[in-house]
Amino acid sequence: MRDREPGPDVCQAGRVTASIPAPASLVGIHVRLDPLTPDHVPALHAALAHPAVFAGGFGGGAAGLRTDPDAFAEWARGYFRWDDLPHAVILVGGPHDGALVGTSTLTDLDVPRERIHLGWTAYDPRVWGTVVNAEAKRLLLGLAFDSGFGRVELQADARNDRSRAAILKLGATLEGVRRRDQRRADGTWRDAAVHSILVDEWPAVRASLDARIAAHADRPVLFRTPPA
Questions:
Q1: What DSSP letter does each residue of 15-82 carry, written as one string?
Q2: CA 64 to CA 122: how far, in whole Å?
Q3: pTM for this entry
Q4: Residue 126: closest CA among 31, 47, 42, 45
Q5: Exposed/middle/buried for residue 155 (C-beta within 10 Å: 0-12, 13-18, 19+)
Q6: Which of the chain's termini has less CB crowding within 10 Å, N or C?
């Protein structure tokens, strides 16, 4: 993690409210978010090592996909932000109770500026379009704002219309497109669509997410037919 200690310019103002939360499980109605560990990697491989997941830009894009379990494990060791706050997304209840279906991370933890990045998110295609993303984001956004952060950033490959639409559906604001932001696995350069949610916007965003989750409260998450 970076920037754990407030800088002198902020300390003298005496207004730092953010703090780094300790790793802990976050429990919702449909999902539980456990701190991600290397023990989760085999289940991550089963959930995420699919062309449809990487095609949208996760892991550096399609060229970053490792279908072999050992190659995926080696890739995962270098890709995930293990020293920050990565989480495994696990289903709660229903016929797939306990199944790991994705991951998401709070990273770039900048305490002096009270800002944090919510990213490194991917899900098993069988739960795309379900309540899983809404509840996972509700839990992680709640953790960030409850820990005193004032700005949560969310990014997507500018070419990934699906991810960008999902971020906007959360209630985030598109700030712009940062050009030539990051190299993809195939060597080309990604433009990043940068979004944010501010602490003053959180009550409205939270209410919207809570309503989406409540609409599914009496139905467990069922696996869907993944895209071809």
A1: -----PPPP--EE-SSEEEEEP-GGGHHHHHHHH-SHHHHHTTGGGSGGG---SHHHHHHHHHHHS-T
A2: 14
A3: 0.92
A4: 47
A5: buried
A6: C
Q: State how far the Cα of 54 lies from the Cα of 102, in Å rounded to an integer.
A: 13
Task: Give tens-digit pLDDT for 113-139.
Answer: 999 999 999 999 999 999 999 999 999
In the numeric block, the tokens 């944090």 are attached to 116
Beta bridge mates, 196:
153, 173
* Residue 152 three-state SS: strand
Domains of the chain: 22-214 (3.40.630.30)
Paired tokens of 28: 């919702």
Integer angstrom CA distances of residue 184 from 86, 122, 125, 138: 21, 16, 21, 29
**Amino acid (one-letter) located at 195:** H
Kindly report, residue by residue over 170-224, the tens digit of the pLDDT: 999 999 999 999 999 999 999 999 999 999 999 999 999 999 999 998 899 999 9
Nearest-angstrom CA–CA distance, 148 and 18: 4
Number of other CB atoms surrounding residue 204 within 10 Å: 11
Residue 163's H or E segment, with its range, is helix 161-170
Comparing 24 with 12, which gets the higher pLDDT? 24
Per-residue pLDDT band for 226 (boundaries 50, 70, 90) equals confident
- Which among 75, 29, 30 has a CA at the least distance from the CA of 48? 75
**Distance, CA of 119 to CA of 110 (rounded, Å):** 15
pLDDT in tens, 51-100: 999 998 999 999 999 999 999 999 999 999 999 999 999 999 999 999 99
